[in-house]
Each structure stands twice: as structure tokens, then as C-alpha cells.
# Entry
Amino acid sequence: MAAHRLTGCEKAYFKLKQQLTNLRPGYAFSTAESIFEATLGGISCFGAELIGPDPSIDKFRLKFWKSHFELKTNAPHDALYYLTGSYPLHFRAIKMQLQFIKKLLRYPNDSLLKAALVDSVMNGVKRKKVWLRRALKHLAVVKNFSWKSSDILFDELKNLNVTKTMSLIEVKFQETLAERLRANTARSGRLFFLFQVYPKRPLTATRLPLPPYLLKALFTLLTSGHHFRIETGRWNGTAHDERLCPYCDVVDTEEHSFFVCPAFEPRRQLIWSKIENLRPEWATLKSSFFNVLRQGVFFTDTDKELLFWITKFIYFVLKDARDVHNGTLCLLPYLY
Ligand SMILES: [Zn+2]
# Structure
């Protein structure tokens, strides 16, 4: 049954890709997401009541995100969950299985289904194979009990509140995710800049009022899919301190390229000329950059315009950095 679900997802994903190619170019993320839900949403939970959640299903949405935002296949998954604010796809199956268990417990004692559930819990906890093992493990972690004891487990199940349990599982997921992000940032990993931009999880990164090509540029930057040396140095194992800017004698970080490097000064000046009067209190391009991206909602035209120009700046700097990396562009010819 689990294998059927996986094959079903493979087929649905293929269908999804076909449907997306029929859309006109530059379709919004929300459109793609609706088609994802319609093709993969249900199939990904197929049989979840009995076979339970299977984390291998999660890869389909990760693949979908990477393909939509044109990200590298090695784009960090933590960054994608952080930016989209989504939970792993298999969480729905946990919910379905917990709801099913709750329903079965309401059956009369002499019903076959309830007997099967009781038997499964009583005997199953001692064995490795139990049909509701996966969901119960999640329940045990968030409710902090040993699911290996059938008595405790039954007590917990009797009072099971599925909605509450699911929010506990989700909170736990967010906490662990933030912890990993902090650890990655502490060792200057690939999520370092993402965490500088969003020390708190953004609520609406996928819903930003932006044309799709600018949203893609933002996602590329925040998933470390750019061509600054801090990233390209990783590809060939260059030591962190030796990933120097092609134009300056300092480590080529995102922050260096966007706000310091003279190579991008013309880009900076152009964008600053567009935005300097929109929010004078922000004073610099750097503060505008972080303030705009961290803003949760964009109600006014000024907010939208600022967001547009800041992401346009990102788009151009990423493009230039890629061209420099590929050897098709030299930004400061007088240096050579
Ligand atoms: Zn530089």
C-alpha cells in the first residue's frame, strides 16, 4: 500500500509538471500551488489511516518548490520550509491516522475494529511492526510519554485531541527548524544570510506582491543559490577565509557584494536613486534592504514599490555575480 502511494505520487508529479507547462510563462506561485494540491495533495495521504505517515513523500513538495523557484537541487530544505512556512507533507497523514484512531476508540468494545486497535496497541508496542506506530511515535514525543507502555498509551489515546496534538507537532517542528538554522548560522553555513535577513520566520515569503522572476531571485539568494565566492568556494572546498571577492581582498559574502563591494556600486546607486525618498527615515540602502524584506505585509503602494526595487537590486546583483563567475562579465575592468 505504501508503495502504491509512492507510485501514485510519482505519476501525479509527472502530471503536475505537464499541467504547469501548459500555463502561460510567469504564472504565480499560488496557481502552481493550487495545481500541486489538486494533483498531489490527496494522493500523498492515500491510505494514511492504515499505513500511517511516510516521510519519503515529503520529497515531492521539495522538488516542486525547487522547480518552481528554479533553485538548485541541493537547495537547503530547511531554508525552504522556513521561507514557505509549510510543514512536511507527511504531517497530514499523521493527522489522518490520529483522527482514525480517535474514531475507532469511540466504537463499542465488541466491535471488530476496536478490538483490532486494542490488540494492535497492546501487542504492537512490544513488537517493531505496529500499524499505527509512526503516528503514535509523534504523539509520544510531543506529549512526552513512553509510547512503549500500552497502559500510558491508552490513557493518552482516550483523551486524544487531534487538533491540539497537531499544533504541538507543528510547534515542535518549528522549534527544531529554528535550532538547526541557528546552528548553521553559528558555523557560517549556507543558511547564514537567510538568518540575517529573517531572524524570525517570515510569514508570507511566497505571497510577496512581486512578479515571479523577482520572487525567484529572492528565493535563489536566500537558499544560497547565488555565485558569490562564499558559496562557489564551497563547491571546490576552498577554506572559508580564502573565498575572496574577485575585486577586493575580503571574503565575498552576500553582505559584502550587496553593500560594500565597489563592483556593484553602479547598481547600488541606481536603486538608491529610486528609493531614497520613499522612506527617508531608513537612511541607507542596507537598512532599506533589511527593513523591506522583514516587513510582513505590504499594504501601501510605497511598500510595494520599495519591495520591487530592493528585489530588483537582488536580481541584478545575482545576475552580475553569475556572469562574473561564468567569465562573461568583468565589472571593474580598470583593475586588470
Ligand atoms: Zn568586492
